[in-house]
Fold this protein.
Amino acid sequence: MAILTYREAVARGIAQEMERDESVVLIGEDVAGAGGVFKTTTGLLERFGPERVIDTPISEQAILGAAMGAAMTGMRPIAEIMFSDFFAVCWDLVVNEMAKTRYMTNGQVTIPLVVKSGNGGSLRFGAQHSQSIENWAMAVPGIKVVAPSTPEDVVGLMAAAVRSDDPVLFFEHKGLYSSKGEVPDGPILDELGTAKVRRSGKDATVVALGLMVSRALAAAEQLAERGIDCEVIDMRSLVPLDAATVLESLGRTGRLFTVEENPRMLGWGAELVAIAGDDGFWDLDGPVVRITTPHIPLASADSLEDLMIPSVDRIRDEIEQAMKG
Amino acid sequence: MNLPLSNHAYGEHDLVMPPDDPTSHDDADIPLETRLRMYRMLQEMRQFEKRAYDMFMQQLVKGTTHLSLGMEAVAAGFGAAMRSDDYTFATYRGHAHTLARGVPMEGVLAELLGRANGLLGGKGGSMHLTSVEHGVMGSYAIIGAHLTIANGAAWSAQYRRSGQVAVCFFGDGTTNIGAFHEALNYAAVFRLPVVFVCENNQYMEYTAIGDITAVRRPAADRAAAYGLEPIVVDGNDADAVHLVAADALEHARSGAGPVLVEALTYRHGGHSRADPGKYKPPGELEAWLAYDPITVYRGRLERLGVAGADIDAIDAEVASAVDEATEAAKNGPLPDPQAAFTDVWADGGHTWRS
Ligand SMILES: Cc1ncc(C[n+]2csc(CCOP(=O)(O)OP(=O)(O)O)c2C)c(N)n1
Ligand SMILES: [Mg+2]
């Protein structure tokens, strides 16, 4: 067992897979010599050499295209898009190419690749370097989407993503890079499409993702002192979506809350709430509540950003209010 | 200061006319066997696309299709030069490039008809022809993307030391999208074994390329920016293309890095089936029809002593192959409705939730 930071866990996960499989290679801007702008790939160049860990030009389309073409022809590339906001300049490759080529070719082409990217806010980077774009990704059939919240999950889900034969967008939360957690020794392999119950509770089901998981857990502790016992689920993966775990929990608690960093409209929680309406309706004892960032771009000032992204206090208060009805 | 393009105005580009000497490559060092193969390919492409056009008119082919009538020599010249395990990356205008790799006509035609015996089971259509077993790694319909994807296949070949080359075909209009420039720089930086082939048919959709491009030669004049040689070839002479293709493939295969080729040609028809091509200035189409890649090549074979009857026999064989493919395509079943739900994921399915 070791205590690793989230960013160290990213490098550990990639190294584990590169060690295991020669077809795993890494490309991106500043990922090799500099070890990544977020230092998530430190040491990989030294360990695996310049043929497998490659610094690219600032060419997001070329990066994703290279990853896709290589994946179609026998490799398992990992590509980095530095900030998830930059997917906007190469979204064609994701949405039109990676997501659809297998389908359009009637299964002739397999695209086993991972695009890792720093996602989310809380670092005061302003509206173009703070977005939570996981909901863009989950809107496109053909792309798998994961967003781990702990170092251990980072390693295991990175391994699962690399071994997946489908294209996977791997969202690292920038606000979690310096967070720490225990990671078991030895190889770790997790499973895509599985949520995890982080805290058991009997009164309400609170579903969160990424940075929101730790905040939801902190809110749950405070709510417990006020007599509300929350079950907190870390969604971890949006595509596939582990609706079963959420519905099962809802069946026991009767109440559903989502805690989402993405802007409100069509956030991942909206889909989950719709599923609860379809398949969990008779379990619901009260309104479902989505606690989200408002439908606005994020401001850079710390005071404003903190007001917009769900905080522990806001999560606690909104749940308490709804539960007391 | 008088910048080179300071008097460039929309609509004022010069007409680009075809070469006037169809004999220029009569003496090229190309075995007759290869030449006959290329002639057959030209005929296959031409007759296939004419049939596809007719079937459109009969409303058997739905949606849209983009014909390369008049541009076949590019596909034939490269097709005959490529190694069987080389990769082709084509565009929505990809029928000829697909046939050039030996993909049977039936599957291609059936795909246009949306039948289960189509190359893609009816799930891709005319714009996405793919046959991995023939090295056709796909036909791509969003301008620019496939240049970057071809780089990836070339990178993989380089990494695996397989000696394969990726050949990527695209149009003149494509030289004005960012992905073109990203892809060329990327390929040059990593010395990827990729050959980029710009089929300069002088139009991007309905607009003359000269009216919306800052340089006269859309690909060749950009080559220097990426440390590449400017290579322009007569895209209506299959022999000229073949020689350039062989050199380019050899260069890329040897590890010397990417090649950018601009093949000058002309699209006889409109951009897609909806387009009558009314924007073409008087005299242009006529001049290029007179320099048709098939008549150019047939003339050469005759000058080289191939009997007219032997050439006619090839034409007739191709015609009956097209007829057979037409029947097989027409008789193909519609796709099973369940097919719409397969192959979203590698496990064959489409499930997104538990
Ligand atoms: C990104 C993008 N923009 C626009 C289009 C629409 N479009 C389809 S074909 C085409 C013209 C392309 O011209 P060119 O590259 O010369 O190829 P050609 O059709 O002449 O073979 C355009 C604009 C597209 N498919 N993708
Ligand atoms: Mg064109």
Summary: The two ends of chain B are 68 Å apart (CA to CA). Residues 310 and 316 of chain B are 10 Å apart (CA to CA).
